[in-house]
Please model this.
Amino acid sequence: MNDDLAALAARIDHTNELLTRMLAEVAKTPSTHAIFVDAGYLYAAAGRLVAGTEDRRAFDLDAEGLIEALIDRARTIFADSRLLRVYWYDGARRRIHTAEQQTVAELPDVKVRLGNLNANNQQKGVDSLIRSDLESLARHRAISDAALLGGDEDLVSAVEAAQGYGARVHLWGIEAPEGRNQAEPLLWEVDSQRVLDLDFFKPYVSRRTSAFDTSVNRPGREDVRFVGAQIAAKWLAARGRESLGELLPGHPYLPGSVDQDLLVEAEGLLQYSLRGQVDLRRALRDGFWEHLQKQY
Model:
């Protein structure tokens, strides 16, 4: 009898030891977050807020700049967490990428997921894609926090599914000029809420002018890259190498404030708007980074 009790005690001690090791490993594992963007909601709400219209054809959205701003905001909120990736959900006819969606898909740390568009240009299947990804990532412990930029009531089930596996879901909204642009049941279910205001979106949304106006005196990529290097040299002279050391670990992303200053100064030097010009914005950042990295 005593031998049986001793064996039982030994098994209990072994089990406790395994649990202690497991908990220690879990404690060392960094938290991970992901950003989920319902592009239909984003375009409609940001277009209404900044350009006064929900019609995508009437304004340009600098998706690359905005995604970097969202990543920067998440980095601030989830300070002790690392980014898994940004999930970008949009609609397309027969789920074939448009040129704009292809550009977004080529960005680092971004995954584009496409639903369908019906005859009335309404998204179909996007909510189910969001639910599938949220649930799968939470179930496999790939994320601990999810930042969800959306407003549709159909997303409630996605939130509940992720929460059921222990993930926290944080709803990000876009300031509404009037009333509310997010469903109340969705607001009730999430773990926290934040609203991104007009100042946040202004740099990335601009009213579209005619095709003739946007093509006049359009600078080349190398010209824009050179301007980016010029601004980097000026930035480095003003702030010193200490600031450079703080900036480089975030590569290829720039903090939102630095990115916005870069854009404004470049537009002044070029006398040309880079809003919505994804290829030129990328060339500008490339020139900025290349100069800084040469000086490090």
